[in-house]
């Protein structure tokens, strides 16, 4: 897809309940959700410096603003991210849980030393993971349930079939996928309706455009795009001298290393010129670009501070016309980034990259 093919302006619906956040539907069978989702991962895991009180305040600010899609994983902080969301919903104004669409990833195995094991997509494991998540979230249903990585040892039909049984039993509302390739999308969709594919998509991660996105569209599967700021790299706030703890994912991410980082931050400076011309921020430009790629795409942002959330929400009122999109493409051409989006050992687990 080229920049001129799909330019969806981001507008608030003219009728219905007034809300500062417009909504989009996830796929042809999925739920209506806020056009911007909040990913809670960095509040409990993978990025250094999470602050529980500020995380709760950010979740509350998001719910207050009309953000309904909240994404988590049972392995983010070994369940603590789910418990954080539980607390945020319990302490929010009445009706928050009913309005929220909780998306949960499972399957990533952990160990007591904070390490990661293989993924487990066996049906019995699916039921076990779901039972614990329901308990930690303090809810009787998960709105969207998905395995974080396709388990190469278990046919995807079996994993999805197990979630479909949870749907039948009322424990889960919708089935999603994560980082799955086009063939897997087809196989999964032959078993049960799939609401959305969660996958990395940003100005500097455009791998889905060739095959995965067209296949998802053909099958009526929506996209929840993560890493739209490339984990902060293209937010306009990341500085080359920032020191990262060894436990921070970015300390091992190829894009944040040495010459790659310098090159990638040069791209951000080009993008900053475009953003300044429009009077918006770099992060807003990057998020608005993802929003502009189609009504079937919902960006998840990883804000963990209220000011970052407010900045991200500002992207919803940015309209990019054809000239803006062309200027963005010139600043950050497809494939311009240096470095893979994951270290090679983790790239190997991405069904979407095979
Ligand atoms: N399915 C999957 O495989 C997968 C993988 C990764 C993530 N996810 C989901 O996607 C969500 C988002 O992913 P992500 O956190 O990696 O993506 P992101 O939104 O690209 O990056 C978030 C980071 O960018 C920095 N940032 C700077 N300005 C920001 C702004 N205005 N708004 C938000 N963040 C800003 C923050 O880092 P600092 O706070 O350190 O400055 C923040 O932690 C996650 O929370 C998770 O739910 C899914």
What's the gist of this structure?
With 354 residues, the chain is α/β, with parallel strands linked by helices.
Task: Please explain how this structure is put together.
Strands 3-4-5-8-9-10-11-12 form an 8-stranded parallel beta barrel, surrounded by 5 helices. It is globular, with a radius of gyration of 19 Å. The chain has a domain at 23-229 and 284-319: TIM Barrel (Alpha-Beta Barrel). The protein is built from 13 helices and 12 strands. With 354 residues, the protein is of the alpha/beta class. Helix 2 crosses helix 3 (80-90), helix 5 (123-137) packs across helix 6 and helix 9 (258-278) runs antiparallel to helix 12 (322-331). NADP nicotinamide-adenine-dinucleotide phosphate is lined by residues 39-42, 47, 71, 105, 148, 178-179, 198, 226-232, 235, 237, 283, 300-304, 308, 311-312. Residues 39-42, 47, 71, 105, 148, 178-179, 198, 226-232, 235, 237, 283, 300-304, 308, 311-312 line the site of NADP nicotinamide-adenine-dinucleotide phosphate. Residues 36-331 form the NADP-dependent oxidoreductase domain. This is Aldo/keto reductase. GO terms for molecular function: oxidoreductase activity. One of its GO terms (cellular component) is cytoplasm. Residues 1-32 are annotated as: Disordered.
